[in-house]
């Protein structure tokens, strides 16, 4: 149904995928283990929000000085932000909330992965701190975890490389080919950890 590289992830493809994710997340919720679910999300069976308008996306691009990658643009036009993007990310930004990591309260991630024991020692690899310093922050709240996009690492489809990073993982930033690939990873990780009943077979 979905292209593994996100090539067909327009609004028509995001909607059923995110609806399935929402249903499985809500149905698999354990009130004794998990944080409370948003009443609106339960009522609507939807972890997202109303779609961003084309003008809102254009305003975000003007503010950031970059055209957003296709899979992120289509996502925002489907839902302007997202709750519970996996077990460790509690909120994804809407169009007006997107910001460069260096300009946010989460900029300490950059220092933590520059010139420390976390820094990449492979001379053939770009230093992790440099990647983080230029990255777009996607996540607004998480369990010592963050989701990012790298505007310098762009493929032939205009997709930016995505990164998942958690201070407790014992690993550096984990790279994905696109925003869609990063989101699908979060979805499959949720399945591995929760094993909800659903249609995906993930």
Automatic annotation (TrEMBL):
InterPro entries: Knr4/Smi1-like_dom, Knr4/Smi1-like_sf. Residues 51-182 form the Knr4/Smi1-like domain. Pfam families: SMI1_KNR4. It comes from the Bacteria. This is Knr4/Smi1-like domain-containing protein. It comes from Streptomyces gilvosporeus.
